[in-house]
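Posting this for the archive.
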Amino acid sequence: MPGSTAGYNARGMGPTTGRIQRNPLREQAPADRVNTKIIQPAPPEEPANPPRPAGDLSRAPVNKVAAAAVDAWADENPERRRLRHLSTATILKHLEQFPGKTWQQRWVAAGLDEYGTNPGDLGGEDKKLRKLFISGTRQLFCLRVIRPSLDSFRGHTYPNYALDFRLVAKDPLLDKFHAAVEASDASPSAQRTAMFDVACALTVFGICLADLTPEVLLHYSLESRRKQLTRGATKRGQEYNYAGIAAWHILYETGHFPPSAPHVLRAALVGGQKTVEELVDRQQLRNTNVRDLLVEYLRRRAADLDHSSLRQLARVLPGTFWSNVEKVNPDQADLRLSEETYQQWKETISVLPGGRPRLDMDGVLLKVRTFYLDLQSWAVAEPERWAAWSVPCPVRDAELRWFNVRRREINARMAERTRVRQPLLPLLVDHVTNRWMRLREILTAAQAVGLGERFTAAGAQWQRTASEYDLKRAKTEKSFPVRAVNRDTGELVAVTRDETAAFWDWAVVETLRHAGLRIEELTELTHLSVRNYQRPNGEVVALLVVTPSKTDRERVIPMSAELFHVIAQVIRRHRSAYGTVPIATRYDVHEKVWCPPLPYLFQTQTGLERQAMSNTTIWRRLRKCCTELAKTHPEFVGTTFPAHDFRRIFATDLVNSGLPIHIGAALLGHLNIQTTRGYVAVFDDDIVRHYQQFLDKRRQLRPEEEYRDPTSEEWSEFQEHFDKRKVELGSCGRPYGTPCAHEHACIRCPMLSVNPAMLHRLDELEDDLVARRQHALAQGWKGEVEGIELTLTFLRSKRSQVHRSQQLPPVNLGIPSVPHSRLTPE
């Protein structure tokens, strides 16, 4: 590990990681930017000279087309030539029954251009006839006699169609593309998918490879996904797949796509950052003057905000605020809102579209208030531009007076969330660790035996599968995924795939809980993030450099042995598979930009594209782990473990373990120590433990003579004090050594504890006070009346308090009794 980063340092990478900044408006080298030109999907134009490998056969007779099919493949085997002629003639004779001047028109008239239609169904139950129809249709596609729709072509599987299509097309560009695919590092499956996607696009669009532009391939990918025609769309978790991912990568790398095109298909799909005008116009505001004002306001604020904050502000002001104002009052012409309009607007936004109450009302009101106050302050400096919009702010100070109280309530909810999840964390850690260890043991044992052989691993008998599929891959591929069958249960396990998923689940959980990283900081970790620091005494300390994220400040974390072990395992896995940590791309979902290609530690591969794990990928992994645990641990039912929960538990463990909170703030990357306080959840046992430590420390600091046994005089004075606290109605609760501070006005005194046996005396005093009040009223003594009524209020309150206490059952505190001899000093 110490040598793993030496090569990077030697190249002058410096003491910090590659720049991955949240704010693209800050300084950034132009060479670090990834080209992300935005393109729009578009179907190809009809070519003037469509590709015809065997000439124009659109109106040719059956025998001529069948002969062209035989000549196109130039098979030397007479039986294969006969079958090609027969299959082509079979499908054409069927199409002759339908109206049309061309074979394409007859194909459509026959109803074979719709999704779900299978040419093999024309053969009925006869298997040989079914094969003839499918084979003939396939040959007509390759010869470009028939141009099927995307629905029709993808509605049926044509194995190895890309190879047949290439042989017939005789296109040098297509040959070059196939050679590039075969020379790539992609798996055989990804290679076949890349070649098929290109052949499919050329077939359904009726073009040659020279006409396959980025816009056309993007249109093909989106249409295939929209119609759920992507290969693997029916498999679990694959419903979001796009077609053409690997094909796009090869076409870009080989120079077929221009350098200005997006480097990967995903870059063409995400769209990049939106302008201020686009962000505002999403809301379709009716008042053009307010729309222009919001555009100028956001453009001015954009200089101080990153793109994520700008998008959030653009959602609140034009969307949550003004679009709802227009719904409440369509005739609203300016920012001067009436009280009625403002209250209706607040009532409207207090409930989300789904019916749930809005929890971030304070955030919305603060942004609206800031908007109004900014206009007022800018109007002083630039009255010609902003004075017309300077009006009183509808959000008053009183509405935000309880903001800090509500903020504390949020912190209390987060602390309770931490208290609930901290005991569950060891279960989650054990689950991901044991699962990875088990699958790793099975994989190691399976790789040591041949196909079909049995082995023992993880306390069970297994057999490595030897299906026709496995045997075929063993002949054509150097390495292929391992699959095994549990001999006891019959369970088929994709060992390689499951072990890889289990490893990354383990790595994510362990890194989050030992480093306390934000989720975006985890995805931004690279091989360059690992550093070595040698102390003056020669000790080497492993450091983890966390790139700027939320606070745009880089920080360094000394790695514990557990964290170092996890990072070392991740790097070791990459180097054992590729010799180094591969370079991967990363899309910043917050800033909507592509980051420079770097050796990210947490990365995945889709086809030929290597990319850093996204926030969504991390979230799905954690949710899946909790779902699996819920099957055996009911406490995990309905419980999730977002990445930030690990961060809060990490902060709580740090502070409760005795680490100074300002050091914890530095490790967490907090600029304000109060933020760290909000992360730390205090447990009841922590309160008791710290209080006992405080008392023990105070006892050690106080003079020992204060802990001597009391003298007889002091003990007598102490007992006499309690005797003096006894009064007619009960007992006084004033502290020891203090005189009566209320001049013995016991009924009005809050220190009086009424004896239940004296309730009848309270009734007598009440009757006397009522009589005195009547007399005072008759005499017009208003001051006396006011004093008597106050005394009556206190009297009745104390009587009610005694009645309530009598209704409560006694509680045994479990306090041991102390012998009377120990209460009396010697």
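Confidence is low (pLDDT under 50) at residues 1-35, 233-240, 811-816, 820-826. The longest strand covers residues 540-546.
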